[in-house]
Amino acid sequence: MTDNPAFTAVLQETRRLLAFHRALGIDAYPATAALRSFLAAPLPGRAAAPPAARPGLRSPAEPPSEPPPTLTATDTTLDAIRADLGDCRRCGLAAGRGNIVFGSGAAGADLLIVGEWPDQDEDRSGLPFQGEAGNLLDRMLAAIGLGRDRVYLTNIVKCRPEADNAPQPQEIKACQPFLSRQIAVVAPKVICAMGPLASQALLHSREPLSRLRGRFHSFHGIDLMPTFHPAFLIANPELKRATWHDLQLIQKRCEERR
Ligand code: URA
Q1: 3-class SS string, 128-169
Q2: pLDDT value at residue 24
């Protein structure tokens, strides 16, 4: 990172804006003369290294090339799946992780939330959705009358990627069978995929989250609602209203299925 604080601030704000645009589905800009001259303008200070990833500003990852495996209810308990995962070395993330973040919550939950990948707090504790994003998730759940004891939380990838970068397709693929088995055992009425990576990986889609969210999709016959990730909402509170809409649909669908 450059040691010019003003430049760093502009860089961070630009990344924030680009992440916001990406979430809205804007992935190209018109090559106007003004944009070209802005991009060509000399930068103050020495060249900047890529800024560290932080919640809501992670680099995009490609969804895996294969769809998630079908759900087969061969397991009877989550403990059996966790035991099978063991001290997992199935991908390169094992080398840099602290703890495997398998999942937590109610085994028979109506709502299963799939996040993206663990950060530092989760890596340390071994539990999903800690820290600021976890606190916001708790408030989002409370708003629809739920607590952590009534949902099951897990992630697409169970180990923290180095430098909090987005996981690679082979890392997502290594975790996929375990996630599918967790979903089959919990057998939720509704799945909520939080963030673009979770939504695209589960739906095997390249559509931006802005086009996927706001309606239910089918994940092997289970209603799946994609929505914004709480870490992204902290950086982009404008999108809380849209997320509230998604949460209300989830609440209604859980009640209908009860
Ligand atoms: N972000 C996620 O998607 N999951 C976590 O567990 C933590 C942060």
Answers
A1: CCCHHHHHHHHHHHHHCCCCHHHEEEEECCCCCCHHHCCCCH
A2: 63
CB of 56 closer than 6 angstroms to any ligand 1 atom = no
Residue 246 in contact with ligand 1 by CB distance below 6 A: no
| Structure confidence by residue, pLDDT tens digits, 7-37 | 777 777 777 777 766 666 666 676 676 666 6
pLDDT of residue 70: 77
Quick: pLDDT tens for 94-127: 999 999 999 999 999 999 999 999 999 999 999 9
Among 97, 155, 156, say which to mutate for ligand 1: greatest number of ligand atoms within 8 Å of CB: 155
d(CA 254, CA 258): 6
CATH 3.40.470.10, the chain: domain bounds: 78-257
Residue 123 CB less than 6 A away from ligand 1: no
d(CA 22, CA 158): 25
Rounded distance from Cα 117 to ligand 1 centre (Å) = 5
Q: Is the CB of 166 under 6 A from ligand 1?
A: no
**CATH 2.102.10.10 given to domain 78-257:** no
What atom of ligand 1 comes closest to residue 127's alpha carbon?
6
User: Which ligand 1 atom is the nearest neighbour of the CA of 116?
Assistant: 3
Contact between 51 and 12 (Cβ < 8 Å): yes
Which atom of ligand 1 is nearest the CA belonging to 229? 3
DSSP SS3 for 54: coil
Percent of the chain with pLDDT over 70: 81
